[in-house]
Amino acid sequence: MLDKYIKINPLDNVAVAISKLSKGDCVKIDGVEIEIQGTIPAGHKFLLKDLDEGSKIIKYGYPIGHLKDNCHSGCHVDHHNLQTDLSGLLSYTYSPTYSQDELLSKKDCELNYATDDLPSQFMGYHRSNGDVGIRNGLWVIPTVGCVNGVVNRIVSRLKKELQFNEDTPLLSGIDHIVGFNHNYGCSQLGDDHENTRKILRNMVLHPNAGAVLVVGLGCENNQPGLFEEFLGNYDKSRIRFMTSQDNDGDEVEAGIGICKELYDLASRDYREPTPISKLRVGLKCGGSDGFSGITANPLLGVFSDYVVYQGGTTVLTEVPEMFGAETILMNRCIDRETFEKTVKMVNDFKDYFLSNGEPVGENPSPGNKAGGISTLEDKALGCTQKCGRSAVRGVLSYGDVLRTKGLNLLSAPGNDLVASTALASCGCQIVLFTTGRGTPFGTFVPTLKVSTNSLLYAHKPHWIDFNSGSLVEGTDMESMFRDFTKKVISIVNGERTCNERNGYIEFSIFKNGITL
Is the pLDDT of residue 418 over 60? Predict the structure, then answer.
C-alpha cells in the first residue's frame, strides 16, 4: 500500500499529504507516530513535531518561512499560519557548486539514467541562417495594435480562400496560419518601447515561422521602415512588409496577395534529421500546487539535464519565483561573471517590486495557496527544480536572444503568457509548462502542458499533454523520464500539443512603462 504522505528531504520538519488526511488519522514517519490534527488536503503540509511561534519551517531541505503561532505535531501548515522571511535586496557570495575540473569532466552534470535507447535526433526545418524550427508556420504580425483588424481579416480570408485545414497540416506543408494581435507599437517610450520592438523582431525572425508578413500602419512609433532596419540581415523572400497607409488600394487584398506568395514558398519546406544539440527548450510553471515540486518540476529537471547533456539548450525564467531559491542557481553559475549577472537579474526585479511599493514576497496566487503552496520560498524551491542540476552558463535580459548553449536564465516576470512569450522570443522552439491547477493557453511556439497530479489530467484532458501525477502513485522517475522524453520528441517532430489543437496560439509583451 502506498504511503499517504511524502517527506521530501531528511532535514524537513513537514511532510506533504499525497491524498487527503482527516482529523484523527495516524501516520508513521521516521519511526514516530503522528496524529493528524485537522483536515489536510492533498498537496498540503503538516508538521512532524511540535514547534513554537517563530520556528523555521523546512521543506526541500530549506526554510520556507516561519510559524506565526505555536503549532502541534500533525497540524496543518499553510498561508494562515506560515509567514515568508523574504524582504528587500540582498548581498550574495559566490560559493560555486561545481569546480571547473568537475564541469570539464562531467559536461554540466551527470545523468542518473542511461540514454542509449532515447532519441538523439529530431526532425526539424533548417532555415537559411542556420537556425532550426520545429514548426513551419505562416505568421502575420502587426507593428502596432491599430492594424489588428487588418491582420485578422487577412488571416481569416486567406484560410478560406486556400481552404486551409489546420487539422491536416501535413497535406499543405504549413503547420498553421496565425495572425498575432497586440496592443503596443505606439505611445510608448524608452525601454518600454524597445521591449516591444525586441519581442516583435524576435517573433519575425523565429525559426518556427516558415514565412512572415509584417503589417504596419505608417504613423506609429514603431515605424515599419525603422523596424525593418532593426531586423538586421534577414531572408527577404520569407519576410515581407506592408504599410497600410501607403497602400493605394485595399490593404486586405494586398496582404492576401503577399501571403499567397509566402504560402507557396514555405509550403515546399520539409523536415530533416537534426541533433538534439539544436533543440532549445523553455521551462515554465503556472497554477502550481503542492505537487509541483514533487512530480512535474523534478521531471522537467531530469529532461533539462538530458537536453543539456546532449549539447542542447534549456531556459529558466520567472525571476520573481526564484526569490527564496536564488542562491541555489547563483552557486551553479559557471563563473563569477555569470554569478554577477544572476545577482543583478534578481536584485533588479526585486527593485522593480519595491520601487512600485510592493513587497517582494507576496507572490503565491489564490490558486497556489489552495493547492498547498504557502509562501514564495515554498513556491521558488519547487519552481527552480525545473532546470535540474546543470551549471548555469548564460543570463539573458528581457528581449535578448540565446547565444550560449546549456542552461540559461532569462529575466521575465512570472505571468504565464508574458513569461512563455519571453521564452519563445529568446529562441526556444518549444515551452514545457507544468501546472497543478490547469490552464488552456499557449504561446506562439508549442506549449506542452504537464499536470502535477492525476486528477487534473483526468479532469482536463483537452488541456494537458502529459501526466506526471503517477510519480506519487508508484511510477518511478526513470520510467516517467523515458516516456516523457519520447513524448516531447514526438511533439517536436510534429505531433500537435493541446494548445495547438485548440487554436490557442498567442503572445503577450511585458509592459512596465508609461503610455502616452
Answer: yes
